[in-house]
Design goal:
flat; 7 helices
Length: 218
């Protein structure tokens, strides 16, 4: 907001939030939207094995220093630099023209029609790029989930359910073994008899007294 003397004045407000509130806001889907990445992992592993089996021998046989240098020079991040520089013979005229324009440059007033047209075109291009970025991101996300989400639902959901069933069976077996082991230990403990040569276990004196067994401590 504008303050006195046309200097900007800012107001800052702090609010306290808990981590649970942030997680609930940012993780609305409870990470359920990440199951499609399991399909991505399998596709990636398949592509890696296919490349190692079929493409890698051919690439290693045809690679040399000349081809590597050519690929480096034709890389898009390098090509976009030298293609409009003095290294490109088709743009040899660009340097002198740029120097001439730089020497004869004259600033326009902000109310001039070319300056207003420039500002309007800049805002239009910026808004167009923002719209393109939003549509591109939404389209890419929709295509990703349509491809790998369907792949996971059709081919990998059964594997996941089988793994969950196997894990549940292992947990149930572990609980059953623990319960059986506890019953055996308890049954064995009831058969213990204290002797004069060993100290009395905790709680055994009252148990022996209740069962009428002679106590070696007496």
């Amino acid at each position: 907001m504008a303050g006195n003397g046309r200097k900007p004045k800012y107001e800052v407000e702090f609010r306290e939030h808990r981590l649970e509130e942030i997680v609930e806001r940012l993780n609305r889907f409870k990470r359920k939207d990440e199951v499609a990445f399991e399909a991505v992992e399998r596709v990636s592993d398949f592509n890696q094995k296919t490349y190692e089996l079929l493409a890698r021998p051919l690439v290693q046989a045809t690679s040399n220093e000349a081809s590597a240098k050519l690929m480096r020079e034709l890389h898009p991040l390098r090509a976009e630099r030298w293609s409009i520089s003095d290294a490109n013979p088709w743009f040899a005229w660009l340097g002198p023209v740029a120097d001439a324009v730089r020497e004869q440059r004259a600033a326009l007033e902000s109310e001039a029609l070319p300056r207003q047209t420039e500002q309007a075109m800049s805002e239009l291009i910026s808004a167009t790029l923002d719209c393109y970025r939003a549509v591109r991101d939404a389209t890419s996300e929709a295509m990703f989930f349509q491809t790998f989400g369907s792949m996971f639902a059709l081919t990998m959901a059964e594997d996941q359910r089988a793994d969950m069933a196997a894990a549940a069976a292992r947990a149930s077996a572990g609980k059953e073994w623990s319960a059986r082991h506890w019953r055996r230990s308890r049954k064995a403990a009831t058969r213990l008899r204290p002797c004069a040569s060993a100290p009395c276990l905790p709680g055994m004196a009252s148990r022996c007294h209740s069962r009428g067994w002679p106590c070696a401590r007496n």
